[in-house]
Amino acid sequence: MAQVVGGAAVSHSPQLSMESGGWRAHGDLELPRLGALGLTPTDRSQEELEDELDPALLAERYQACQRALEKTRDELLALRPDVLVVIGDDQRELFLDDIMPAVSIFWGESLEDRPPGAEAYPSTMETAYKYYHAAEVDVYETHAGLGLHLVEQLVEGGFDVAQFTEQPKDRSLGHAFTFVYRRLLEGLPRIPLVPIFLNTYYPPNQPTPGRCVQFGQGLRKAIDSWPSDLRVALIASGGLTHPIIDEKLDRGLLEALEAHDHEALSRIPVDGLREGSSEIRNWIAVGAALHDAPGKVVDYIPAYRSKAGSGCGMGFFTWTRA
Questions:
Q1: 3-320: CATH number
Q2: Within 13 A of 282's CA, how many CA atoms are on the CB side?
Q3: How do residues 295-313 score in pLDDT, each as one tens digit?
Q4: Shortest CA distance to 146 belongs to which of 78, 231, 79, 76?
Q5: Which of 82, 130, 200, 266 is 20 to 30 Å apart from 119, CA to CA?
Q6: Contact 113, 133 (CB under 8 A)
């Protein structure tokens, strides 16, 4: 049977790929839209936020992010995975309003990064764009056999997952998945991928935290039953809280993951999982799947970028099975 060797969870914020001098500009650019999102305001005082935005501290946190990315990469590669099962969200890249499944698995032979062009992103993300998309169409090898097995076994286990084998015309594999290869594993030979798309962002069919726990448990059973000797690692892409950073929520999540406290993971309030913070669902699912693997926080870095308390709670986490 397949060997689940561990995994990783990692933020994919553009701030990871732009020098700290650009963080404030990126934050200022988003200020007009923050009010319209209806998010819970930051609990940090203006004085505290002024301190958080000190250029020297921003530079220090940027460097801490780079070190955490490198350590996460090294620990993931030490697992020697043959296949990566990546749980990420799709932000209107492959799925639009014509169909928005709660959970979908691709089991075709390959998916393409069909780059939209840097002009599709905010101007402040110019340096980060290349870590989401190639200059030209880029093909990612996917593991059809494992993908099909997961669909079949999850359905057998009571999860009505969507599935597809053909990429919709004029739509691209999303940045939650390309980031893993273009940034976390930059420059390395590509490990075949099984992408699992979790609808974290868009109401009304986002899985609850409790359902994410159940899904992770079901996913693990499905992988364990795969008749193969390949080494499988799981990755959660995205998070933690953003655009408004909630350090209490982030730290509570990380503590629950380290303790394998599935009850605590199930109780994470849905109201806190909106916009980018919704990607925490990916972490919950992977954490539940790796219930028997010791997990540890590589680092947690609250990377603020505006006086409104916006930014990204940068999380880096790994699991290793003995």
A1: 3.40.830.10
A2: 35
A3: 999 999 999 999 999 999 9
A4: 231
A5: 200
A6: yes
